[in-house]
Amino acid sequence: MNINSSNVGSLKKQTTFSFNYASIRNSLKKLRSLKSFIIYILPISLLLGLVFPEASESLNSLGLSLIQLISFPAIPLVLAAVVLSTHSILTISKSQKSKYNFTRRLFLTLITIVIFVSLFALLLALYQKPGILSPDGKLSIGRYMLDVTDINLSLFTVNDGISDNFKWFKDILPVNIIGDASKNETLKVITGSCLLGWGLSLLSGEKAEPLLTFIRSIYDVALKVLDELLLIAPLVIICLIAGSFATISSEMIVALLNLTICMLLGSIAALGISRLIYKRFTSLRERKNLQGNPADSVFLLGLSTGSSLACYPTIIRSMENLGRNTNQSEVAASLSLLVSSMGNIIYNIIAIIFALNLFEVVLTPYKLVEVLILGIVTGISAAGLTGVSVVPTIGLALTALALPVGPVLVLLLAVDPILTLPRAATTAVLSMAICTICSEKTEDMKTDENNVMLNQEA
Amino acid sequence: MKIKEKLRRVLHASTYIALILIINLVLLVEPNYAVEIEYYQNVLDRGYLKVGIPPYNTPPYYYYDNKTNRMEGIDIDIVRQFAKNIGVELLIDKDSKTYNGLLKRTGNGDFDLTIGKLSTFYKRMQDAHPHQYMTFRHALLANRKVISKLQRQLPNDKFAPILIESDIKIGFIGDSSYGEFANQLFPNAVKIGLKDWESCKTALLNNEVDAIYRDATEVKKIVYEQPNLSLDFVPILFDDKIDHISMYVSAKVNPDLGPMLDFYIREELGVKTDNQIMEEYECFFNKQTSQTCN
């Protein structure tokens, strides 16, 4: 009797707890909307930063710690998502029965969007002219660079003359997929996962199934954990915005205002494109299941976490709610988030134009084509990299254009705490657009739509 | 008889008193700080220490100050204090025509010592004996685009051999120690000796040379004074190529003056590095803070 009553008590407690957790969860989820961001989060963050400037450093540190927490499921998610995507692409392309050629559509969409966003970024940069500085701006930048960009040499170093032309290739080849994952070497994890997915696709269904189920479980757990951790995203953005008062030099922001505006405009345009694609490539019946345009919430999540991968669960859930093929959505999302990150491509093109303007290089048509190609190549070479680690990837482009790498990187890194947010949001929101274009409607959704049409005709 | 005796005693006493007075007078005329080393005795006799400096104005080391109407600067303060320690005034000679001419005159014994941010190298040591009191890194102020073409994606720790072997155009003050250093360090470079440091700077800004060569304090001073230049020009600092800055003393005087000079450097000055000098004299090097310095 006693045992029974205690069980009931614990059950009640559990119910109360889950009820409270659910309500907190709902409230935190509501904070992730654009409205909440403008009405609550942004003013609170700015007030905190202005009223307690001495707390900025601690807030920034807390924000970065929370980002680290959110990034915790990233590596298992990347590993599992890429294995499953590669397996899906290779098995889908093998089946000739399907009229809907997903693989071809995905690659065509990716190429089209890469070319489109690159041209758009180039035109935007040419119009906005980042890097053309006023005398005051030049002075601020010069002051910022004093001592930082000096070259210190030692005469006793010997140039061994050995330059490994295939170092870049070695850097992407996996050594040991678990070891690479534990060292956070995302690029090696991606290539390792691709190979694993390819291997699985070569096996017969029966043999591949146990490992696929296991990887699918890892994927589900990582996705669930990430989804729950994302509840703290509003807190992260409050900490980061308030903390930016300590980390970002206001003088530098003013000096590099054109660059910042250019990147922000690029991300807003990406949001517009994604919204348009969502409306153009979805039917009314599909949109009925979703409240509002999911591109907004994806964009805001990318903006608040500075991580495009953090938007993965939201993109997949939105696609599920639209009634799209989950397998295809996963493939499209993982490929566009991890490999062809549109935010990185846009950013790199703008940054290269910034560097060319900074050193007063004449922009000939030939130079612009060079910028376009180098921007795309270096943007794609940043696959798997997040945050500030993306910035040095333009070093290759700067060297090819015979521009000084050091000072440009120093300047870009100075404003990167701001630019990393729209960069992630751009990648995420365009990934959502790619998923919308590529993924096929599920059979249920097709039947539903046919029924609706028949009813209307009747 | 008694009167005669008394007179004799008075005469003796007067003689003694006169002798004592004479001795006292002699002692008053000859001061009691007479020294045993002849050289210092000569300096004390003449009442000043004669110091030679180069025929230029090189703030903050040595320059004519219109406010005080006399020579001022780090080097001038150093020798002024040294003269004070000896107990004499300071007399500055700025009549030499070149750096190397100054060293020749030092060797000939025209001065007690020579100062003025003078580098140490073998040719000069044949004229006079050096006493090191500062160490400055060698440095270039170079055009960033030229350097980036040479360096490409090479890290800084592997760049030195390529820069040294390159054929860039290097400007420096003609007939200065850096002409000698440039010949040693950059065998393939096109070396251009210019009139003074201002001419070197102008040549760099007009793209007539790719880099200008001097010590770290002079190179950094240019970008500190005009920070907007740091976008186009980069200071390259050679951490292990040191310019040993010395005071010079003639071979004749060195055995006498050398020990005292070394003691002064060791105990009062210390051998300062370029970073220490730039920090200590921040107002001179950093225009940003110069407004708040005065």
Key words describing this protein structure:
heterodimer, A: 458 residues, mainly alpha, disordered N terminus, B: 294 residues, alpha/beta, 14 helices, 11 strands
Gyration radius of chain B, in Å: 27 Å
Radius of gyration of chain A using CA atoms only: 24 Å
C-alpha geometry of chain A: globular
Structural class of chain B: alpha/beta
Order of helices and strands of chain B: HHEEEHEHEHEHHEHEHEHEHEHHH
The number of E-state strands of chain A comes to: 1
What is the averaged pLDDT score of chain A? Answer: 81
Mean pLDDT of chain B: 87
Count the E strands of chain B.
Answer: 11
Residues in helix, % of chain B: 40-55%
CA distance, first residue to last residue of chain A: 63 Å
Helix and strand content put the structural class of chain A at mainly alpha
Helix segment tally of chain A: 22
Provide a descriptive summary of the structure in words:
The complex is a heterodimer of chains A (458) and B (294). Chain A has 458 residues and is mostly helical. In chain A, 76% of the residues lie in helices and 1% in strands. Chain A is globular and about 75 Å long. Chain B has 294 residues and is an alpha/beta fold. In chain B, the strands form 2 sheets. In chain B, strands 1, 4, 5, 6, 7, 8, 9, 10 and 11 form a 9-stranded mixed beta sheet that branches. A two-stranded antiparallel sheet of chain B has the order 2-3. In chain B, strand 2 and strand 3 (70-72) form a beta hairpin. The radius of gyration of chain B is 27 Å and the shape is elongated. The model of chain B has no long low-confidence stretch (mean pLDDT 87). The A-B interface holds A 135, 138-139, 141-143, 145-146, 149-160, 358-359, 395-396, 398-399, 402-407 and B 144-145, 147-149, 152-153, 156-164, 223-224, 226-232, 234-241, 288.
In short:
Chain A is an all-alpha fold and 458 residues long. Chain A has helices at 2-30, 34-51, 56-70, 74-94, 102-128, 135-145, 167-172, 177-182, 186-202, 205-229, 233-247, 250-255, 257-280, 284-287, 294-305, 312-322, 326-338, 342-358, 365-381, 395-400, 405-438, 443-457, and one strand at 151-153.
